[in-house]
Amino acid sequence: MYHGIPGRHRRLVAFYGRFLGPGDVAFDVGAHVGSRVRAWRKLGAHVVAIEPQPDCLRVLRLLFGRDAGVTIAPVAVGAAPGTARLGLSSATPTVSSMSPDWVGTVGRDAGFSRVRWDRSIEVPVTTLDALVAEHGEPVFCKIDVEGFELDVLRGLSRPVRALSFEYLPPAHDAALAALDLVDGLGDYAYNYSPVETLRFASDAWLDADGLRAVLDRHRPLGRSGDVYARLR
Q: Where does the Methyltransferase FkbM domain lie (predicted)?
């Protein structure tokens, strides 16, 4: 379903073409089964696909294991290197998470009423700083790790040119904390793309206060999506 939706790959390529071009390094933190990886390779970027889930890793290796332009990193990303428990949802692997607090928060939301985190595994953890040291500074870094975004960002000590992180209304405060951390890294402008629309909510890029106002408007509607930040 992630690779076969008509027109979606073309829309992904057009959307991320704002950020990436030939030879650029891109980090996909929480690569899942690689829909972004495929689009970014179409743009000519070298992609570091970071994904700790074994089932997703099998798909990534099947699709991209022979592509010299893709590095598959079978790890999670956090505030410090080590190991951690990853809570898996067998029926809905896109919401597998390393954040028990996030699982508890969204688990009380009606939209997650049927989701069950039924098992867990121990996974190795690295940091964004370590990934930058190994693979070079990314031109764009996507962070989609189901409530662990703040921990991922705590492992980054310097700004990157552009990044995104997921926003969920039930975990509104966590997203604002991530925004504060990003804003402390550098002079960023922000925008927001609701729930896989691949369109920006604002015609103009905003400062952090402007984005907070946008997220406050979306919160009552339950519109999840992704926050985008780019250096001015």
A: 28-166
